[in-house]
Amino acid sequence: MKNAGRILAVVALVAAVLPGPAAAISAGPRFHRLRMDGYVGPPSAEGRHAMANLLIRAGKKDVRFQVTAATVLSGGMLASQIFSRVRPYRPNFIFRGPQSVIGPFEHAEPGTRLRIIGMWRAGGSRDFMVASIEKR
Asked: What is the DSSP string of 60-105?
């Protein structure tokens, strides 16, 4: 009877420990769909605080973008967590996608208000796969 109890305890322990690491391995990279609203250029002189002050590489140009609102549309992170992960790097994001989509951002005048939607892959990547950029 003692052996049956020990075996049951070992099986329960193994079952409790294995699903976590096994799920993390099989899941692969996690993609997060992010929507950012903001404007091109340096922070506002009016003293308004942006959610994030980003430097984004679009084509061959680095563009400053002040995020005033952001929402994670899919994925298990908050927008603030994504910004915290890319904050130490310059540029923070590297836009990937067709030139027809990225071009308007690359050539936008300071003060232009934009909404950007795309995918970011967690795990150390700065690549941001742009789905759309529209003027607000």
From this structure: TEEEEEEEEEEEEEESSS-HHHHHHHHTTSSSSEEEES-HHHHHHH
